[in-house]
Amino acid sequence: MTESGTPASAAETVEQVVRAQLAVALGGFRGSLETALPTVAFTIAYIVSRSLRPSLVIGIALAAVLVLIRAVQRSPMRYVLNSLFGILIAGVFAARSGHAKDAFLPGIITNAATGRHDPVHRDPVARGGLRGRHGHRGPDRVA
Q: Helix 78-97 to helix 52-73 angle, to the nearest 10 degrees?
């Protein structure tokens, strides 16, 4: 399927279809950029200043500016609002604890709750799966 919902042509490869669907899901280049920029700005500001409050202000202010730009352009704000919401929640965690590293705690909790980025439970090799025909780990050996 393409972005417009029409069936993909037979000439398209699976990779092309997956790339197109990911681009739609992530908001394309602009959506991905707007989602990442506030967190990157916060991180860089903290690395440079080692001060939590100004770093939070920079990240939140950047997200707010991106929301305003989208509002002025009357373009969809889904991804930039997600970014603003995410940086606000991260800011609450970091401000309450006083540690910048806690800004990333909501993402860690979300990933743990949804099972994402869990190599021990999602990777069949880490679980002891993918055994060969004779019970040994790894691919079957051909003699």
A: 160
**pLDDT tens, residue by residue, 15-35:** 788 777 777 776 777 888 888
Which are the contacts of 19, defined by CB distance < 8 A and separation ≥ 6? none
The number of angstroms, rounded, from the C-alpha of 58 to the middle of its chain's C-alpha atoms is 20
Angle in degrees, CA 81, 85, 89, rounded to 5:
170
User: pTM of the prediction?
Assistant: 0.58
Query: Exposed/middle/buried for 103, CB within 10 Å: 0-12, 13-18, 19+?
Result: buried
Angle at 25 between CA 20 and CA 28, to 5 degrees: 65
Residue 43: strand, helix, or coil: helix
Structure tokens at 30: 């602009």
List, in sequence order, every residue forming a beta bridge with 1; answer none if it has no partner.
none
CA–CA distance, 129 with 124 (Å, rounded to integer): 5
- C-alpha neighbours within 13 Å on the C-beta side of residue 143: 0
Give the whole-angstrom CA distance, residue 7 versus residue 122. Answer: 31
